[in-house]
Write a structure and sequence with these properties.
Order of helices and strands: HHEHHEHEHEHEHEEEHHHEHEEEH
Shape: globular
Bound molecules: pyridoxal-5'-phosphate
Number of helices: 13
Largest sheet: 7 strands, mixed
CATH superfamily of the largest domain: Type I PLP-dependent aspartate aminotransferase-like (Major domain)
Radius of gyration: 21 Å
Strand content: 5-15%
CATH architecture of the largest domain: 3-Layer(aba) Sandwich
CATH topology of the largest domain: Aspartate Aminotransferase, domain 2
Structural class: alpha/beta
Distance between the termini: 49 Å
């Protein structure tokens, strides 16, 4: 063996999404691109908004001296100020550039935050079903994950269950709304209840407990909803997010973390985060992308398009007998598997060239995930295959 036993075992445990994607590539080779319906990856099909290309052109035609050099590890002041201005609208205390660090996506921000706050062996609560990378990110920084189920009917926060899991070793809870894989949005009342419970436990345990709010889908909220700001609900909270989904830029690795100005020792936290951004080898978020998103803080892809895809699939799949929570945002559906074994169901769907990820990949066997950030045409053409799958799974 030439790589570590640990990495080898991580690869084996984490392979669901990649595995399905690779099998899909094989199916495409055999049947042709137009015959395979790949719902596995959260890779947005929508191109960035026109404003992105205009900004890109403007920057290319008007290069600034030194614009590709190293910078402060926190990122450009101007970019952080633009981010802070947007965050102010959802924060009781004003947010400034001093509370913002630009990062290599939300994934980079999560790693920076976890490295900043975790002592070896401290626990991070993650909520099932969860984004699978959380486990690896926590482990990267010598933490231990504790899984707590959300409500199994609604996938909403179960604050009492989170409270029960908090102990003397807990350091943080990661929440994600709109959620991957369920698409649910946590309403303000739940976040307020979470904040009140956390504050009570902090007093009882005499330690700071962070809520890390992972929000890359925050602007992808449907039916005129707004995702409630975490800063007004939880004192020791930090936002980690990116423009991977809202501007359709996952390959560009641009995101940020922002600390609640009300947080205990917020200056020290940010100092730690800037240091960790550096020593994790990110050094700083990509320079050109920082310049680009500075003027795009109010922009996003056409969210109406995602809402239309949600409505179309939710209606058609419900009519075929699939049961699922109607998502409030993001671009995922997480229906109950009609077969008790979700992996067997995913295999059945694969026989009809529909590629899905089993719930087991999110710590939630008995469900499956559909990523519907793909072309309308593929979604529409997949319907006859869905009907066959529903029939064979005993739904019709
Ligand atoms: C819940 C969640 N958090 C974080 C990320 C990472 O996003 P980024 O591309 O910004 O690193 C993703 C990406 O799919 C996600 O779904």
């Amino acid at each position: 063996m030439t790589i570590s036993v640990k990495v080898m075992s991580c690869i084996e445990r984490s392979s669901w999404i990649r595995k399905m994607f690779e099998e899909g590539a094989l199916l495409r080779k055999i049947h042709g691109d137009d015959k395979v319906f790949d719902f596995t990856l959260g890779n947005p099909s929508m191109e960035p908004p026109a404003a992105f290309h205009e900004e890109l052109r403007r920057l290319a035609e008007n290069p600034l001296p030194g614009m590709h050099r190293y910078m402060n590890n926190a990122g450009y002041e101007e970019t952080r100020a633009a981010v802070a201005e947007v965050l102010c609208a959802h924060s009781p205390l004003p947010v400034t550039a001093a509370q913002v660090v630009m990062t290599c996506g939300a994934g980079g921000a999560l790693n920076v935050v976890l490295k900043t706050i975790l002592n070896p062996g401290e626990e991070v609560i993650i909520l099932t079903p969860y984004f699978v990378e959380y486990k690896f990110y926590v482990d990267n920084h010598c933490g231990v994950t504790r899984e707590v189920w959300t409500d199994k009917e609604t996938f909403q926060l179960d604050v009492a269950a989170i409270e029960e899991a908090i102990g003397p070793n807990t350091r943080a809870v990661i929440i994600n709304s709109p959620n991957n894989p369920t698409g649910v949005i946590y309403p303000r009342e739940s976040l307020v209840a979470l904040g009140a419970m956390i504050a009570r436990k902090e007093k009882e345990l005499e330690r700071t407990l962070y809520v890390i709010s992972d929000e890359p889908y925050a602007r992808l909220a449907f039916d005129g909803q707004e995702v409630p700001g975490i800063f007004g609900c939880v004192k020791n909270s930090v936002i980690v997010t990116s423009h991977s989904k809202d501007l359709g830029l996952p390959g560009e690795r641009i995101g940020y973390l922002a600390a609640n100005p009300a947080m205990n020792n917020v200056g020290q936290f940010i100092e730690g985060a800037i240091f960790c951004n550096r020593v994790l080898g990110f050094v700083n978020a990509p320079a050109l992308m920082q310049r680009l998103v500075t003027r795009l803080q109010g922009a996003s892809v056409d969210i109406g398009q995602y809402q239309k895809k949600r409505d179309f699939l939710y209606e058609h799949l419900s009519a075929l007998g699939f049961e699922m929570v109607k998502p409030g945002g993001g671009f995922y559906l997480f229906p109950r598997s009609p077969l008790a074994d979700d992996v067997a169901f995913v295999r059945l769907a694969q026989k009809h060239n529909i590629l899905l990820v089993p719930g087991a990949g999110f710590g939630a066997p008995g469900y499956f995930r559909i990523a519907y950030c793909i072309d309308d045409d593929i979604i529409r053409r997949s319907l006859p295959s869905w009907e066959k799958v529903a029939g064979e799974a005993g739904l019709l």
